[in-house]
Amino acid sequence: MNIWRINTRTQSLTIQPSPETWQHLGGRGLLARILVDEVPATCEPLGAKNKLIFAPGLMVGHRLSSCDRISIGGKSPLTGGVKESNAGGTTGLAITHIGIKALILEDKPDDDEWQIIHLSDAVEFEPAGDLVGLGVFEATPRLLEKYGKHVAIALIGPGGEMELRAAGIQNLDKDRIPSRIAARGGLGALMGSKRIKAIVIDFSGGVKPPITDQTAFRAAQKTYSKSLMGSPQIATYHDYGTAIMVNMTNHFGSLPTCGFSEGQFEGAERIGGENMREILLARGGESNPSHACMPGCTIQCSNVYGGEDGKTLVSPLEYETIGLLGSNLGIDDLDVIARLSWEISDLGLDTIDVGAALGVAAQAGLVDWGDGTRVSELISEIRAGTPLGRILGNGAATTGRVLGVERVPVTKGQAMPAYDPRAIKGTGVTYATSPQGADHTCGLTIRAKIKHTDPEGQADLSRGGQISMAGYDTLGVCIFAGFGFAAVPETIPALLNARYGWDVEETILQELGRETLKLEREFNKSAGFTVADDRLPEWMTREPVAPTNEVFDVSEEDLDNVFNW
Amino acid sequence: MNIWRINTRTQSLTIQPSPETWQHLGGRGLLARILVDEVPATCEPLGAKNKLIFAPGLMVGHRLSSCDRISIGGKSPLTGGVKESNAGGTTGLAITHIGIKALILEDKPDDDEWQIIHLSDAVEFEPAGDLVGLGVFEATPRLLEKYGKHVAIALIGPGGEMELRAAGIQNLDKDRIPSRIAARGGLGALMGSKRIKAIVIDFSGGVKPPITDQTAFRAAQKTYSKSLMGSPQIATYHDYGTAIMVNMTNHFGSLPTCGFSEGQFEGAERIGGENMREILLARGGESNPSHACMPGCTIQCSNVYGGEDGKTLVSPLEYETIGLLGSNLGIDDLDVIARLSWEISDLGLDTIDVGAALGVAAQAGLVDWGDGTRVSELISEIRAGTPLGRILGNGAATTGRVLGVERVPVTKGQAMPAYDPRAIKGTGVTYATSPQGADHTCGLTIRAKIKHTDPEGQADLSRGGQISMAGYDTLGVCIFAGFGFAAVPETIPALLNARYGWDVEETILQELGRETLKLEREFNKSAGFTVADDRLPEWMTREPVAPTNEVFDVSEEDLDNVFNW
The complex's ipTM? Predict the structure, then answer.
């Protein structure tokens, strides 16, 4: 497994062995290591000194259920700090099969000619031609037609081309739909700054990464898979998808509603997972409530959301999207939310940051709560690249700043996912202190059996979650695979030792997590972050959210001690 | 001299004696002290915890030539850090005559009812009524009609009402024209956040502040005035105004031209001070090349710019405005620049930050270089409050972020005045390291007899300038009055000792400057600023500017040592 460096200005490829200090890392941890080693922390994120890095997690490449995630990162154009955003789909798998431990896109071209990078055992740059300006759902079939079906693709939409800071990078799912987005932190803008429309990875001649001890690997895999399939939470996610969270967060008073002004939504049941499953089963056709994003995934938390005619409206329709585009905008119709999700995804934008931005726009009077038609018009402004469109496409923080709205749900400039931190305070600690900015995948605490509104003890809870998640993100393991590993934690070192010939112990998950967080904080410190950035916005400490009527009141001392382990 | 606190929510006034640690300070230094003592550095700048503070300098109140400036400050809505912006006119004088050492506006109202604060020996809140939405040039005559002529006024235009971050606070000049703007850092937005349209200070019953030793004061005043009037630089500023700088900066290759892409402008002579004087003398009527902004000022660097019919187009037309709205936009016609300056000033906006924003908009293709008609249309967008108008009115940094332009001339989010820092590197050090963000009045180095393109020694030069200017800003002394004091520095302690009964020495200017800078940096550190913020934008370290073909190459080590004195 080598390091592939592609210079986007000279269009040249350099293949190098992995430096020793990189070898025990993958995914999020490796990204942080590379950023600390190679990217000047104060550099302009959309300039030549920033790098766009693809690093599969340590477990990626073997179709272990839910363990083939690709981490994508660089200095964030959105937050100005460290950024890792990971996705399912096939990019991780493909990249390991052609022997890449990390793919690093460097420099930027002097001209504005858009390119496709075609990777196999070599690299070719090809003009993007008339793909420029196309949404990801139109561009992808054309790429598949040209490059064949044995490819993975990471691509950007018009949002990334416009270098909008809420732009992500879409990856193909197992059915070759560009639906698995590395959404957060503006990495699509970073890819756009290097004038790369798509990276096509032909892995038809590839092979699985080598395994040192096949027998031990298979044994551990079997134990893990059995544990995963026996998990009751997994059964729920399989049947209902992430949308099952709607009623749970609504119950806790933590479902963002009308611009985070309330924590419960009248229409919650209509947009929840139970109702979605009924709709999809009734509609049939292409509709599917249980769909895998990665080959071999047994969880299948994804879905295909079909319209009344059974034809796909969007795939997938996830909880965060429903929260930010649904309840957050006062919209209680899943069909409407599905169409909005398709539009934003086609632009290659993050539904969380754009959904939050639309909630800010509503506060500024640009759209009424519940008016999906007007929301759709606003998304069209983004596609047209109008000044208003560029405001929204740059995310919630910029939208608030320009439109003069104080009540913006962000930390470190990144929008909050669909858990109001005043009612789930441990997740608020994660939002505040994660080096990534507000991100539920960095340490969601909603499943802990504690009183979520008690400010005490939340910092400890968040710390544990942040360490574990940084570990899982370094392994390339899906957040839900943790339900499997949690019951049989010995399979983590067993899998790593069998694959790499290592001799690591059961603490490896936490060790990797702590190392990753330490590196990320080191990068952020050099970039100019301080404890002043580890805070929720002031209005959330002042304005109670119904029905809990809680403010965010975890002490600053607790926040500042999250990383003192 | 007391501290007056006005709570803008409860509409109540509290008068207190000055705390001991505040007594030796005034102006900029006192603002910094109050911010450190009372304003949480991480607070939302447009929220209830921020305070808007008016503090006259220590020498203010006696019509000493050019020594009656008012410092206005708070946590900056533009930079997020400490902010002091000072202005001439009559506000400083008036405020001392009714016995105020510092006026502190606190809290913010719960409703959106705009108020006028009427100050005399008490405070009255009066509804702003139909003044809301009016430009400062229309609102002021109405205020004068209502409150009489023995008033000073500090007011905001529509820009401040919209809480745009490039909004300043206008003050009346000696002819009661609202032309003396505390422009930088968005203080107009801060005043707008408290829903105050204007502060009217009736000083008809006021008296000069007491003087301990009248004889000594008059003697020192005489020596200082004589020195000032004998200064050759002052004679030049008297005749030509600040516009005399055009040819000087053009000579050094430091005149911002077409979005800081060049340092010399073809049309420099047409927009320079020499040509302006000829035009104004020829036109006559209200035109006046030598106009005082403060009563008693003998420098008279201000002007009244009349049109072909001799009627006022704008007053004043200053160098920074000419640089940012003229050469920076490729406009070489002073009449056009004068009209644009009137429009931006009427909105109560900073011509520097808006001019820089328009240069960014030109790079984004929204206006061609030299097209004053289109620039005027863009300014109308600001007045109309359209999304594009709000982008521009929030200043250059926001405009660059939204429109996707990297080449934005800012530090700490504040636009650079009209000295390209690549050709005048000492001023670049000031831009980079000043706690205020890019600001020429914090330490301009252009008059030093050194090679301005040599990176060596610039940090020392900037340090000296920054200390002196922080001192002068604490005294309430105009930047040009320094030409007078420099030849007779003993008059500074003499004036202070005579007025206050103190016993300070000739080092007092530097002592006050260092104390002020230390306090400002303390506030910024708590607000989350680090050395990463003490940098010029990356593109200025990479892109040479013609004709010197210099980049900004002062070492980071030098930058980080500016405050190690």
Answer: 0.96
